[in-house]
Amino acid sequence: MADPKGFLTTPRRLPPRRPVDERVRDWDEVPAPGGLLPIINAQADRCMDCGIPFCHEGCPLGNLIPEWNDLVSRDDWLRASERLHATNNFPEFTGRLCPAPCESACVLAINQPAVTIKNVEVAIADRAWESGHVTPKPPDRLSGRTVAVVGSGPAGLAAAQQLTRAGHTVAVYERDDRVGGLLRYGIPEFKMEKRHLDRRLAQMRAEGTKFRTGVDIGTDMDAAELRARYDAVVIAVGARAWRELPVPGRELAGIHQAMEYLPMANRVLEGDYPRPPITAEGKHVVIVGGGDTGADCLGTVLRQGAASVTQLDIHPRPGDERAEGEPWPVHPKIYRMSAAHEEARELAASPEADVDARVFSATTVRFEGTAPDAERPHGGVRALCLVGARADGEPGPGTERVLRADLVLLALGFRGPEQDGGLLEQLGLELDERGTLARDASFATGADGVFVAGDAGRGQSLIVWAIAEGRSAAAAVDRYLAGSTTLPAPVGPTDLPMTA
């Protein structure tokens, strides 16, 4: 604890964001370049070095937050990077993408604004790369054992890196043409530029991890054959079976799932398309869903030049402060404004527009469309009809509204892993009552040598949980192959976030 009074004398301060009118014209990350370093030492000094640091409990990775806060406050960036990487394979990802439940659990947050843990984390990670402190860590010797990892999202990548460093020969299979899963094609560039992903993949390749892209296990390759070729298999395919909106008019052209829309926008930046096949340019857009994926759609729509955009959330507007039923240290459901919502508010076309393009307590009841033609045999969407949702979820009488909509994006979350590709049947995997892959306390399925990590077994969750599960599953696989393990296992398959 470099300054024992830092939390008393230094207010919480966030780095500046680039001006809205500038950033909506490009796809670069939102924070102003170089904005963290002038303030981050003093922000790290606000950490109280608590006797019981509840931030450890808020983060499933068990990040050593007070330790690296203290090191940053003292300008010891090398040791801070070592302590950060001791528990987190990819802090440059989590520092950009995680909603920071660690900050909600910060002891200072009981009666003051929390330490900016997330910003300290990303500052350490970026400084480590810039200073050359992040280098490949290949194993000293090989075990002679082989592991296949199916899926290259954060859980699969974390499992692969841990197992490679333990000496096993690891190959990651990805059905897309590039590695990264939703980190590559689901997360917009303005939230995380893909150079961060690419340089981490280069490190993994230098350590010995192999990547096989364009291979859909269960379709292009029989999953049972894959299991026969490797000593163990880790299934980390995520929870990509999206939720539907079964209301009249759903068949109309111009209504798309968010995960149909977002990857196309990212592929333009990868050079695959000169223009996205699905674009918001010049259109009146409605986004159905109030979560992070909906916000990602919102920021993308604005950058594509939509004529207008409205985001619908079925839930009532959260309060600005913790509710009585959500006491510290749980991560509360409070009103938050992402960078995309900030952009929408500033770019609102008229005084009548919602201040940040969000409509709460809104339930979609039907879509209205144009007449069918040769190009659109079912017609095209032209309007969305909604009603106000009461606290019990039922529509409120007399609250129907009609929104103009040339493009509708459904961001309703995910049900679990996809089940129609042959993977489950070929390996004999079972589903649990939640629709996710069944596994035991050691992440193992009923098929010998087959393990499950990440959202495929947990259900839709946060990136920190995916990485934690990948690390824990790697420890279980290492124990299965070698009889024992020294790899860390920060979480178990049934561990849950702190809730009230």
UniProtKB/TrEMBL annotation:
Residue span, 4Fe-4S ferredoxin-type domain: 36-69
UniProt KW keywords: Amino-acid biosynthesis, Glutamate biosynthesis, Oxidoreductase
Superkingdom classification of source: Bacteria
Record InterPro entries: 4Fe4S_Fe-S-bd, DPD_II, FAD/NAD-bd_sf, FAD/NAD-binding_dom, Glut_synth_ssu1, Glutamate_Synthase, Helical_ferredxn
Pathway participation: Amino-acid biosynthesis
Pfam families in the cross-refs: Fer4_20, Pyr_redox_2
PANTHER family reported for this sequence: GLUTAMATE SYNTHASE [NADPH] SMALL CHAIN
NCBIfam families: GOGAT_sm_gam
Protein name: Glutamate synthase subunit beta
Originating organism: Streptomyces rugosispiralis
